[in-house]
Amino acid sequence: MSLSGSLATKFFETGIGRSLRHPHYRLYSLTNFASIMGIWQQRVAMGWLAWDLTHSGFWLGMLVTAEAVPLILLVAVAGAVVDRVDRLKLLRVLQITQVALAALLAALTVAGMINIYLLTLLSFCYGLVQSFHLPARMTMAPNLVPKDDLTPAIGLNSALFNISRFFGPMIAGVVIAQFGAGAAFVTAVFGMLAFSIGLQFVELNRHEQTGGKRKGLGSDILEGVTYVLRHTSIGPLLLLIMVSAIFSRSFLELFPGFADEVFDQGAEGLGILFSAVGGGGIVGAFWLANYGKTEGLMKVSLVTLFITAIALILFASTTVFWFALICAAFAGLTMAITANASQVLIQNTVDGAFRGRVLSLYGLTYRAGPSVGALLLGSASTLVGFQWPVILGGAFCLFSIALVIPGYKRLSSELEKTA
């Protein structure tokens, strides 16, 4: 066998490449990558446009909170629906709807008809779609790859997410600076459309929905919430993720203010900040994917959350842009590992019949947590500036770690089991 053939065989048998052996997962991941590239361009452009229209930290927080409100209100309903219906068909409809909203945002901006209120309303509508889109999307990996390849599959998703977070904002920063936010919105539409097309050709390897007569939707919701509350490890882990999301990931939503007011770097600086986080995230995601096992992931989650907290405190304590970029990159690296290691632990432990409902709660922590944190930190920034709120957020993360340590051995034993 040639050297290239030997390397290819090794790649598909070890680490992150194991998940790419499965053709439907490969198609799903690559077209989803194009969509995430578009989403990051849209996200950066929305943040910059909100800042450009208002120059208010409050409105930066309000924009992401508007997206999070539907997720908070509908999370339990969304999880129950995902566990009741064909997840793939639901995801196809939701993705088409997301493309339509992106096209409307682009049209309004290019036509000069956008304002902060319309922008916030569209963010709210996008949140409605994401309330169902997120749990549907997150349940795909266990239905497309076997359990042994779950860690590499989630790691691959994270790697592609962070690659897009590296290049998407960088492209968006240049496009916004040269052509305006409307142009960035237009390019975002095409990326989302690619995923919509790709989903038409994806087929699930297995279905986890329970058969037979179903209870009412309300009973399904209550059953899912009760499952999480009574579970001795998933519940505490979700609580830790929520705290860390509120007080660590939320600093990303304040980047427009940091780029312009703290570092005086403008739209291009904003893109560079997001790309620094994405660059670190790429390294973290590939590391986790090649880690390739569940053993030790609880320890990994706590250690990386600790490093994230320190990186945030250092990031917010400086006005030197290059040093802030280094801190942002470290934060991106460790946040990627923490978030995805936690997801692997949950996916590894949860009963498949409850997967949609539990992952909808995980999605709530992952998406709504930063939004709530952004509103809190953004509102505080109007009083004390952008730096002190982020420093205090890092301190809260350190405090949450201290609370979890006494139960560390039990959580590790329950969440890392392989049989």
Please, could you describe this protein's structure?
- The structure is a single chain.
- The chain is built from 17 helices and no strands.
- It is mostly helical and 419 residues long.
- The protein has a single domain (18-198, 216-415), classed as MFS general substrate transporter like domains (Growth Hormone, Chain: A, Up-down Bundle), CATH 1.20.1250.20.
- Helix 2 (23-54) packs antiparallel against helix 8.
- The protein has helices spanning 3-13, 23-54, 57-84, 87-110, 116-138, 140-144, 150-179, 181-199, 217-230, 234-247, 255-262, 266-291, 297-316, 321-349, 355-384, 387-404, 408-415.
Q: Which labels suit this protein?
A:
Growth Hormone, Chain: A, 17 helices, mainly alpha, 419 residues, 81% helix
Structural class: mainly alpha
- CATH architectural arrangement: Up-down Bundle
| Residue windows where pLDDT falls under 50 for at least 5 positions | none
What Rg, in angstroms, do the CA atoms define? 20 Å
Relevant CATH superfamily = MFS general substrate transporter like domains
Overall geometric form: globular
Give me the strand/helix succession. HHHHHHHHHHHHHHHHH
How would you briefly describe this protein structure?
The chain contains 17 helices and no strands. It is an all-alpha fold. It has one domain (18-198, 216-415): MFS general substrate transporter like domains (Growth Hormone, Chain: A), CATH 1.20.1250.20.
Can you lay out the helices and strands and say which pair or pack?
Blueprint: H1 3-13, H2 23-54, H3 57-84, H4 87-110, H5 116-138, H6 140-144, H7 150-179, H8 181-199, H9 217-230, H10 234-247, H11 255-262, H12 266-291, H13 297-316, H14 321-349, H15 355-384, H16 387-404, H17 408-415
Helix pairs in contact: 2-3, 2-7, 2-8, 3-5, 3-9, 3-15, 4-5, 4-8, 5-15, 7-8, 7-12, 7-14, 10-14, 10-15, 10-16, 11-12, 12-14, 13-14, 13-16, 14-15, 15-16
